[in-house]
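Review form for a predicted model. The reviewer records the input and the model, then writes brief findings.
Reviewer: anonymous (R2)
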Amino acid sequence: MTEQGFSGTKAASIVGISYRQLDYWARTELVRPSMIDAAGSGSRREYSYRDLLELRVIKNLLDAGIRLESVREVFSYLREHVGSDIASAHIVISGSNVVLCDGDELIDLLKKGQGVLNILPLAGVKHEVDTSLVNIVGAHALPAAHVAI
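Model under review:
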């Protein structure tokens, strides 16, 4: 079965960001579409379900007050060390600090600042994206029950 792809416009709508943000994040290589990347003027990007989950994590981090440069550092670490099961991870946000809870281990991803802890369970991101998918595209757009991102 072929994985469904989502256009840039749909991806932005599902994740809750502007198309302009999505375009900027793709051009600056924060999240590039994994199914079809832009190949010049007039070409269309196509995002996978995993891409949607990553985009939503980025949005949640930005909404929590984490600067975009810091989000880039966080994602660089997550891609290198967490790998395919990012939704099972938990990120703890403390002011401008971001800490990854990896089992019994806490890993300081930015090593700066301090403040009140907010926990951002990444598994909740899957529910947020699935809800948006159903509302915008319809229930047939949901991937198989166990999509690893």
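Findings: The longest strand covers residues 97-102.
Further findings: The radius of gyration is 15 Å.
Recommendation: see findings above.
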